[in-house]
Amino acid sequence: MTITKAAAIGGGVIGGGWIARLALNGHDVTVFDPHPEAKRKVDEVMKNARRAYKRMAKKGLPKEGKVTFAKSIAEAVSGADFIQESVPERLDVKLKTLAEIEAAAPADALIGSSTSGFKATDMAKDMKHPERFLVAHPFNPVYLLPINEIVPGEKTSKKFVERAREVYTAIGMKCVVINKEIDAFVGNRLLEAAWREALWLVKDGVCTVEELDDIMRYGFGLRWAQMGMFQTYRIAGGEAGMRHFMAQFGPALAWPWTKLMDVPEFNDELVDLIATQSDDQSSKWSIRELERIRDDNLVSIYEGLARHGSKGWGAGELHKDYVKRLGAAAPKKKPGVVSRVAKAAGKAAKAVRGAVTRGKKAATKAAPAKKSAKAKTVAKKPAVKKPAAKAKRR
Ligand SMILES: NC(=O)c1ccc[n+]([C@@H]2O[C@H](COP(=O)([O-])OP(=O)(O)OC[C@H]3O[C@@H](n4cnc5c(N)ncnc54)[C@H](O)[C@@H]3O)[C@@H](O)[C@H]2O)c1
Predict the structure, then answer these.
(1) Whether residues 91 and 110 fall in one domain
(2) Which of 121, 184, 200, 241 could bridge to 117 as Cys pair (CB 3.0-4.6 Å)?
């Protein structure tokens, strides 16, 4: 299934990323977001996304889709066959938004929710057509990070899971359909564990936010980006692999090292501590500058991973294919005046070469054993002198 008309409900950090991914894949998108500055914010995200895609898509891009702002949810979703909901993470807001979407959208439009943690079953409880609704959980920046956790609800039909897989794959994403419906899915379960532990480590004065980030980005973060957790640990087990790794480090889980079961009290003191240290670490850059730094680095990482072997590795393999597909969908360039003249000159030169070859062939046929007078003259000509070594060096 290809998208005919896409609608984005919510145009914040995540909605903006969806809008950019869709538009840069050539799809028109109708957006509804009640925020008075929604258009400016989406424009800013689009600007950064265009910049990243220009760097990344060296073989060209499809003609960019048109982004239109609607005055209501009803206007945005009318006639849409693909709708992505990215409103704030509050169940009451999600329920109200879904009711408004259903009231105006075609009954068979695919609806994906960007929620970070709610189950599709809970969000769809009042829906008339819950079979076409599922969680499609992306990561920021949506226009560059390919992963999409597809989490169907109890009433989502297989047909719509497959349709979702097709639609999101067609815009360059890597879909993982999650087997069991749980809150926060897989990615955010892992992130929450790390985030909780990180807050304790800073709160307890073990390290600063910058030191913690350095331990990740100069260390295991580099491994995670290419091999994830299990493949990395398989290697860490040495030649005996995963079984040895588990035997060696498994018992440590019972000691335990972490504070994963406790939640640090989320008071002003903790927020001040983290926010002040974060300012010390990063306030020399604006958020938009940090986004551009992040995007440049992501593209470099993809390109590095794409160079592994003949196919590329992990996200690099997907990247290679995505760039190729974007290029194949790029409008064919019309030859400009200069290239038309060059083409005509090329044709004329080819015609002359053809005539000369035909003439030579005819002459050879007529006198196969004799060298022509012209050929003899050329043979006698002194060879063109090579420039002196000194002159060459200069
Ligand atoms: N920020 C992340 O890293 C991240 C990652 C993955 C998923 N998500 C999920 O994506 C969703 C959106 O999060 P976000 O980070 O973009 O939040 P955000 O606050 O940046 O954006 C939410 C947008 O929704 C708009 N909005 C509010 N009410 C609306 C309504 N009734 N109709 C349409 N738009 C409305 C707001 O004006 C705002 O622009 C949430 O469900 C969140 O959990 C966030």
Answers:
(1) yes
(2) 184
Query: How far are the Cα atoms of 31, 164, 294, 343, 366 from residue 132, in angstroms, in the given order?
Result: 20, 9, 34, 53, 79
84 CB less than 6 Å from ligand 1?
Answer: no
Joined tokens for residue 284: 């020399």
Same domain assignment for residues 254 and 142: no
**Strand order across the beta sheet in which 133-137 lies:** 67-69, 29-32, 6-9, 82-85, 110-113, 133-137, 147-152, 174-177
14 in contact with ligand 1, CB cutoff 6 A: yes
Query: Quick check: helix, strand or coil at residue 335?
Result: coil
Ligand 1 pocket test target in 19, 114, 134 with most atoms within 8 Å of CB: 114
Q: Which of 13, 101, 148, 291 to mutate to test the pocket of ligand 1 (most atoms within 8 A of CB)?
A: 13
- Residue 228 sits in a domain whose CATH number is 1.10.1040.10
Nearest CA to ligand 1 atom 9: 115
Q: Are residues 322 and 341 in the same domain?
A: no
Tens of pLDDT along the chain (394 residues)? Answer: 689 999 999 999 999 999 999 999 999 999 999 999 999 999 999 999 999 999 999 889 999 999 999 999 999 999 999 999 999 999 999 999 999 999 999 999 999 999 999 999 999 999 999 999 999 999 999 999 999 999 999 999 999 999 999 999 999 999 999 999 999 999 999 999 999 999 999 999 999 999 999 999 999 999 999 999 999 999 998 888 999 989 988 888 887 777 777 888 889 999 999 999 999 999 999 999 999 999 999 999 999 999 999 999 999 999 999 999 999 999 987 766 555 555 555 565 555 555 555 555 544 444 443 333 333 333 334 433 333 333 333 2
**343 CA → ligand 1 middle, Å:** 52
Same domain (yes/no): 60, 150? yes
Please count the structural domains in the chain: 3
Range of the domain at 357: 337-382
Same domain, yes or no: 10 and 117: yes
- The answer to whether position 346 is within a domain reads yes
Handedness of CA 31, 4, 23, 92 (dihedral sign): positive
Q: Where a domain ends, among 122, 157, 177?
A: 177
Q: Which of these three, 328, 349, 372, is where a domain ends?
A: 328
